[in-house]
Amino acid sequence: MRPFLRNASLLTTLVFVLAGCGGGAGSETAPAAQQRLRQSAAAQPGAALIVLNGARANYSISKTADGYLVTDNRGSEAPRTVAATARLRFSDISLTFDLDGVPGQAYRLYRAAFARTPDVSGLGYWMGVLDRGYGLVNVAQGFVGSAEFINLYAGATTNSAIVTQFYKNVLNREGDAVGQAYWVNILDSKAASVAAVLASFSDSPENINATAAVVQNGIAYLEAGVAYDGMPASFPLRAAYHQRVFAGGTDYLTISGDCSGYAAFSNALPGAGSFEGGSALLAQTSVSVGLTTCYPASLGWNSIDYFDGSDALLGHAEPGSEYDVSTGEQRSLPAAARIGDQGIYATQARYASSAKQGSPGKRVLSYALEADGNSRTSAILKLTAVHSDASGATALTRVARYRIGSDGSLAQLAVDETYSSGVHLLYTQSPASAQPAALTVTDTLPGSGAAAQNGQTLTVNYTGWLYDPAAPGFKGAQFDSSSGRGPFSFTLGQGAVIQGWDQGMQGMRVGGKRTLLIPSSMGYGTSGAGASIPGNAALVFEVEMVSLR
């Protein structure tokens, strides 16, 4: 089970005042527990990563006075001594003996929440979350909101029952009278949330001692986003892109956004030509657009990319409209990239025509390689072109998304265009591949009073839908609503909610209503959330601000 951070119903993470387990072996004082968990909420320093070439079974590991001795039984690598805090990446698994740092915290919390041994992929994911600075209580909140936790504690309908089950599931014993009363009072008085109490049980000295024997041979996990045996180490970006650009064919896409209609993107076979006085290979694309809700009803244009013999991009032209000349040394996509890689691969001086008169603007081309759900053989390649004028103002942002295979295949999924006029056009093969280009915030009712800032507590009503470019208002299937449950409260800018909320709620005023279009990267990412939010799903929220303090 791999639970998700910030569950789909956006359960609140209350401000916590933590104390240690009251009574019994391994108890600690309230101030000690407060200080311990404040420290655990801080960003963790990066641990030393040691990469080994073989599978875990090929190595023997023994404890020494200085750490751990790692010996390659095949004799291919020299023995080495590593610190207890090091993380060892084998070809099939990763391992660490860091019981006091993030790995130990993540392991104990996972085991405490679900009363079972963590699965290696889920554990690796949550270690990464803690590494990025999310506090232990925030991660515990994600566990508390998961379906597995809800099912496990379905019979615990009172705070007393929850505490009783925490003692059994986490500490494997009945709660003593003093400790039981202490924690029930903490929950009854709302001095701490259920997630905060779970985190305190998990990281208590009693639980640390109880789990020490279980992890004495190391904590095994799979790193999120790392390629192991059976996964492609990288994807051939440059070869895949050029194979597609230089092949004939047409993509027929549906247009949504501010206008609806259809479009055909036709690639011609490459031809020889010249650019800026030198020989070049021309890749030509013709675009034909038909609109059903906007004027003019039909549009069409041609674009040409010029490459040299080494596949470097020399320039770009849209005859009669735009003429761009590459500058600098970087003019090509990387030959290969791994999921998570991104960067600028070309910068061009942008002119109004081939006469190159007047002050040029700029065209910046960048790439990003993202996970394709849980696929091991494909990824999502995002190519972004940002056109700016001579003043630096953005005139057009065009984002093209492709599915790239480890075999070098490349299929276009969507094209997302946003113009300086505010017009937004989204071309897709299917709603499932649609993504808004960026977080979009629209105030449908401005509200009054002070504007929301980080650190303030917001109380809101909301409804959430899956983003569907073919649906009215982009509202696809509804997956959540506060209606019937009452308003939801959270602290802005603390990572208690998805990134699209933390950024999208900035500046909102009491009484106001706001619509948020949230890309999947600012929502629940490639993992999704439960059965109602699939991986790579963009989201739409309508939010009403009830109060602010």
Strand content: 35-45%
The neighbouring-strand order within the major sheet is 8-9-11-12-13-14-15-16-17-18-19-20
Q: Which consecutive residue ranges, at least 5 long each, have pLDDT under 50?
A: 1-46
**CA-based gyration radius:** 27 Å
Mean model confidence by pLDDT? 82
Outline: globular
How many structural units, i.e. domains?
Answer: 3
Task: Give a structural overview.
The chain is α+β, with helices and mostly antiparallel strands. It folds into 3 domains: 30-47 and 98-221, serine acetyltransferase, domain 1, CATH 1.10.3130; 237-433; 440-548, Chitinase A, domain 3 (Roll), CATH 3.10.50. It contains 11 helices and 28 strands. The protein has helices at 30-40, 102-114, 120-131, 136-144, 147-152, 159-171, 177-188, 194-202, 205-212, 237-245, 499-504; strands spanning 49-51, 59-64, 67-72, 80-82, 87-89, 94-96, 219-221, 249-257, 261-267, 271-275, 278-291, 298-307, 313-318, 322-327, 342-351, 361-371, 378-388, 394-405, 410-419, 424-428, 440-445, 448-451, 457-467, 475-481, 488-491, 509-510, 513-518, 539-548. It has a 12-stranded antiparallel beta barrel. Strands 21, 23, 24, 25, 27 and 28 form a 6-stranded antiparallel sheet that branches. Strands 1-5-6-7 form a 4-stranded mixed sheet. Helix 2 (102-114) crosses helix 6 and helix 6 packs across helix 7 (177-188). Mean pLDDT is 82; it is low at 1-46. It comes from Pseudoduganella aquatica. It catalyses: [protein]-peptidylproline (omega=180) = [protein]-peptidylproline (omega=0). InterPro entries: DUF4214, PBS_linker_sf, PPIase_dom_sf, PPIase_FKBP_dom. One of its GO terms (molecular function) is peptidyl-prolyl cis-trans isomerase activity. This is peptidylprolyl isomerase.
